[in-house]
Amino acid sequence: MRTLLIEDRKEINEVIQSCKTCFLAMSVNDQPYVLPMNFALEGNTIILHSAQSGRMWETLKQNPKVCINWTLGEELAWQDVQVGCSYRVKSKSVIVEGKAEIIEDYDEKYRLLGVLMSQYSEREFKFNRPAVVNVGIIKVSMDKISGKEFGAKAVTPWNS
């Protein structure tokens, strides 16, 4: 079983959009911190939401550099059932490195809440003013993106 790079952006986007949760990694004062988050993908931007206070919020204000991971698939596979090192989880993973920006503009927050909800539902949503004012919206601009497939079948002349 191999690890293969996923180079097709369409396939990378499919992995991201098939996930329900991403993992946001950040760091301040050499202390790493990771949180599971709901998200949406819009072009080369990841949209996140949270409260406007707390450890994540303060960390992003001090250091906006982040890394986000999505992992799809949890099927266990092996080449030899007796050899522990031949075991692998068949999955696809995407990692984005970028910079977080806290969105303050009301109209943009409202629009991005709609983008976020479209990740989870095809329904149209309305948001009342207090909800928009009180939610924290974060946009992460992608600097780097990479994808990998783990536990892929090796391609040989007899199985291609």
Description:
Helix content is 23%, strand content 48%. The chain is α+β, with helices and mostly antiparallel strands. The chain has a single domain (2-152), classed as Pnp Oxidase, Chain A. Strands 1, 2, 3, 4, 5, 6, 7 and 8 form an eight-stranded antiparallel beta sheet that branches. It is globular. The two termini are 14 Å apart.
Secondary structure topology:
Blueprint: E1 2-6, H1 9-18, E2 22-28, E3 31-37, E4 39-42, E5 45-50, H2 55-62, E6 65-78, E7 87-103, H3 106-118, H4 129-134, E8 136-152
Antiparallel strand pairs: 1-8, 2-3, 2-6, 4-5, 5-8, 6-7, 7-8
Concise account of the structure shown:
It is built from four helices and eight strands, in the order E-H-E-E-E-E-H-E-E-H-H-E. The protein has helices spanning about 10-20, 55-60, 105-120, 130-135; strands at about 1-5, 20-30, 30-35, 40, 45-50, 65-80, 85-105, 135-150.
Spans with pLDDT under 50 lasting ≥5 residues? none
Characterize the biggest β-sheet: 8 strands, antiparallel
CATH topological fold name: Pnp Oxidase, Chain A
* CATH architecture classification: Roll
Instruction: Give me the CATH superfamily.
Output: Electron Transport, Fmn-binding Protein, Chain A
Could you tell me how far the N terminus lies from the C terminus, measured between alpha carbons in angstroms?
A: 14 Å
Number of helices: 4
Helix content: 10-25%
Written as H for each helix and E for each strand, in order along the chain, the element string is EHEEEEHEEHHE
Note the beta-strand portion.
over 45%
Return the structural class: alpha+beta
**Briefly, what CATH class?**
Mainly Beta
Mean pLDDT: 89
Tally of DSSP β-strands? 8
Provide the domain count: 1
Shape: globular
